[in-house]
Structures are given as structure tokens and as C-alpha cells.
Amino acid sequence: MISVPASKQITSNFGRNIETDLTTREQEFKLKMFPLNIILDTSEEQNWQNDYYAYHGYNADVIKQFTELFSKIINPTQQYQMPVISLDQTTPKEAVCQVFENVNTGGVSLTAFELVTAIFAMDDFQLRKGWEERKEKYYSGDLLSKVTATDFLTALTLLSSFKAGGTVSCKKKDVLALTLDKYKKYADSLCNGFSLAEKLLKEERIFSSDDLPYFHCMYGSHGRQQDAHDFRQEHGQAVVLVRRVRRTVRIGE
């Protein structure tokens, strides 16, 4: 088995020399190289097999060799049954999270964002698509580019729990308990809060997240539309904090 680029050519000498050329079916037949990208397309695989036999004049040794490849690699791949866990809409959200965590214990652990994405999908809501649109609109600049999907959900959970009164918390269990209604209610307000924090920092001549010693000390909106000037008038202490942050110098500079 070999890996080839999209050009289907393996080259050397900085692309000047072509070592292996698989750009045509005839070249694949000549070099006896079966393309794995058609292995799950049984119709295309069968056509390739018939043309391969014809190219080699139905040679018995060639047929025997391909038959062995088919029985050991191609057929088992085509017949492989993908395990699927089906959950209906009546399944408690806690159970959904538990299933996702259990099936991922052997690999990379799922993030809170991935778990909430699965929960919201039960209500036909595409959380990842929504985040990608918000990231492009609000979090593509140098100051906010480090905000991750999980950061956004954590901040939204913090804002939601604050507005609800009582204990303010944004632990993983709190993020997983976030409802779709609360997400829709506060997502725009949170984005506006981050935008306000970005404007405030820029006015203090901070233009990159690398200039912040602790990136996550950002301001989340409490649901009101404000500009940087209004924020200064109402939260003068925060501006002093930003100025202190500016005086922090990174080691090596």
C-alpha cells in the first residue's frame, strides 16, 4: 500500500522527475495498483476489476493474485458492519452525554462543545454551524482569534447562570446542562460583550491576544448594548485593570 497525492504522481527532485504515474486506469493496470478510493463503490470496483483482467489478457496468475487481494482486503472492507448506537428524542440528555463519553474512553475525550452539539442536534439545531458563523463574524481578529468553541459555551454558561441568579458557575456539568433556549437567548449578547471588550482593549492600544498575560479576563455583556465610551463611564475600575495589564511585560522582550 502506498500513498499518493491528488495528482496521482509520485515525484522526486522537487517535482522534476516522475517516479510513479497513476493518472490513468491503464497506468494503474500496468503497475498493478488498485485505487482504494473506489473500494466502497462496488459497481466501480467491479468495473475496475473487469478492465484489469482484460488489460492483462485474463492471465491466470493475474486473476489469482487479484482474487487473493479481493478476499483479504476488498471484500472484508465492503462487508464491514459499522456499529451504530441509536437514541430517540425521549432519551434524557444526561444519558446522551454518558453514551458519548463511554464510547470515547479509548480515544481522545470529547470536549464539552462536542457533547452539547450532540444534545442540541436532538432538537435539529446545528451548533457547530452556528459557532463557525459567529467565529467568522466576531472572533477572527487578532484579539479574539484564540476564543475556542468550548470557551464560547463556557462563557455563555457563566452569563446564563449569572442572569438566572443564585450560584454563578461554569463547570463542565453546568455547560452540559445548558439548554437550547438559554443558548439562543444569550448567544448574541455574549458576542456583543466580546466585541465591546475588543474595542476597549484596542482603545488602550492592545491589539493582539499575545499582549494579554491572561487571555480569559474578557468582558461578557449582561444583555445591554453599550459602546466603549459608555462602558468607561459605568465601569471605570475595569479600565484601570486594562491599563495595569498593559504594563505587564513578557519575558524575553
Describe the structure.
- The chain contains eleven helices and two strands.
- The chain has a two-stranded antiparallel sheet.
- It starts with 8 loop residues before the first strand and ends in a 7-residue tail after the last helix.
- The chain has two domains: 9-79, no CATH class; 124-246, no CATH class.
- The chain has 253 residues and is mainly α.
Summarize the structure.
Helix content is 54%, strand content 4%. It has helices at residues 25-31, 42-55, 60-79, 93-103, 112-121, 127-138, 149-164, 172-176, 180-203, 228-234, 236-246; strands at residues 9-12, 17-21. Strand 1 and strand 2 (17-21) form a beta hairpin.
Number of DSSP helical runs: 11
Number of domains: 2
CA radius of gyration: 28 Å
Overall shape: it is elongated
Tell me about the largest β-sheet.
Answer: 2 strands, antiparallel
Portion in strands: under 5%
Helix content: 40-55%
Mean pLDDT: 82
What's the N-to-C terminus distance? 50 Å
What secondary-structure arrangement, pairings included, does this model have?
Blueprint: E1 9-12, E2 17-21, H1 25-31, H2 42-55, H3 60-79, H4 93-103, H5 112-121, H6 127-138, H7 149-164, H8 172-176, H9 180-203, H10 228-234, H11 236-246
Antiparallel strand pairs: 1-2
Helix pairs in contact: 1-2, 4-5, 7-9, 10-11
